[in-house]
User: What shape does this take?
Amino acid sequence: MDANRFATHSLNDPRILRILSAALDAVDPYRAVKNHLPKIAGDVYGLAVGKAAVPMLTALADSIPLSGALAISKYASPSTFNLFPLLLSGHPIPDARSAYAGERALEFVSSLKADDTLVCLISGGGSALMTAPLIPLEELQNLTASLLASGATINEINTIRRHLDRVKGGGLARATKANIISLILSDVIGNPLEAIASGPTAPDPTTREDALRILEKYFAAEAQRRGDSNFIDSATQRLSGKFVKPSDDIFSHVQNIIIGDNQLAARAALEQAQREGFHSEILTNELQGEARDMGVLLAKKLRDEISKRLRPFCLIAGGETTVTLRRGSGLALKGNGKGGRNQELALAAINELRNVSNVMLVSLATDGDDGPTDAAGAVATGESAERAERLGFGAADSLSRNDAYPFFESLGDLIKTGPSGTNVNDLVFLFGLSE
Assistant: This one.
């Protein structure tokens, strides 16, 4: 990726731009497919699902003559329509196009024979982009939106999805006789196969009771607030249909292979930082929790480290935080601003870094798509708080309204890479620069 795509008002050091670029280059989906594709004989078909579907399927088509192919994604370029059928659908809330894509995918794989090979190319976003729901689509949309607003983790959301969908939790494998090779670009901490795109070719280790506990966790308070149990009872009944629980023997013809993840991206950034002369360390690849809490925690970490480490230094954290828009016993709406988890994390760091010289916190979504915005993330420095206040913005006020986007837009410190073509969770960089 062109390093200059990361540049902002504060983020203009070419060394740092190259570090960010190296992280994404390491998980380039085209190269990842090329590097991990095994030798395959006979008739080969390709099905790509997720935000990286187009470059992944392009790599497959460039490597092997395909007897048929289908891509389902959020993004496209005009040239891709001539290479293979491409369906664009909804994310993060599934829409009618997502349901159509799910039916097309099931039709596609169910037509294959036992001696065919189906190469599934799976990347983050696939859960919403491809669905074959067991409940009305509108109910699925409302349930997904409520879980997202309530701060549910991606693993919790995908557990519910797997129990309400014919294509998830091994449903795709169940629908075909073909041999399956799944090449998977992971956007889930720890790379659990059942959670990445809700595991269309992986067994589901969770039970109906697991799904019920998640519904109870997030919606019991809403039922209490309303004064009746109809809300939680209705949510419970949504799980009473047919469940896709493939038995182990279904997966005897399936290979699931992880070809890229957050650790790979973080290691590449670490190595580039070292080449650039930074003392570097990966703090974690399992960053989780409320974005605003993690922003404060990481900002304090940065402040503490500037007196302990040789400069320049670069500390790297990977994972995926959450933003809870509904808080309290009544699940009241907390804020209705504009932003995403990476922008909120950076916003929470602003006051913690106030007047600390030569530091920078960079938080970005590796897919270039932070929340429902055109930004990948944002940059916080020791000067950000005072700069914003001169422009009429207060970090605490903006944070209270979940309104990070206009705050960083005013500073010129939104990172706008555009869609990156890959998706391996988020990365946060803590830089201590030379005096």
